[in-house]
């Protein structure tokens, strides 16, 4: 009879120990999704950019280094920006991309159940497709957005248990389009869940 209870008890202790070691692990993996509010800065007479909404979703990995941390993400993003001027009236330029942010952060307030964080870093974006017919109407020489782009991010976040919330600003270091010298700017809000 004791043997029947002993094996399940050992299995439960091993599972509890495994869960505890994962909880204390400095490596965390999770999923995240959010909204973005983006616009294109433009160098074109009589044409200006305005903000429009989009979304992103993907995965994150975080490595804790004491109060500091390193976080990488892989996101699918859809962004858009309104164009205004003589040649365009609130028409949208839309594009989708794979974004790979890599940020370094610092926990300015750290407790067992809550972290308050500041972070900053770089982001690489690869444009998958764009709907920018308005650009073609204004300048027939326009073809499409550049595929590869580099930018920067800075923001703040809070962790509550396994939930993580971020607010960040993203700017571009390279032109997404050289014809109009367009550089995207974006405000982003996201929520994530750390699986372990």
What report would you give on this structure?
The chain is elongated. It is mainly beta and 196 residues long. The two termini are 36 Å apart. The protein has helices spanning 2-23, 133-138; strands at residues 27-41, 47-65, 68-85, 89-110, 114-131, 148-160, 163-172, 183-194. 28% of the residues are buried. Strands 1-2-3-4-5-6-7-8 form an 8-stranded antiparallel barrel. The longest helix is centred in the first third of the chain and has 22 residues, at 2-23. It has 2 helices and 8 strands, in the order H-E-E-E-E-E-H-E-E-E.
Largest sheet: 8 strands, antiparallel, barrel
| Order of neighbouring strands in the sheet with most strands | 1-2-3-4-5-6-7-8
Count of extended strands: 8
Shape designation: elongated
Order of helices and strands: HEEEEEHEEE
Sheet/helix structural class: mainly beta
Report the total helices.
Answer: 2
Q: Mean pLDDT score, rounded?
A: 86
Amount of beta strand: over 45%
How far apart the termini lie comes to: 36 Å
State the helical fraction: 10-25%
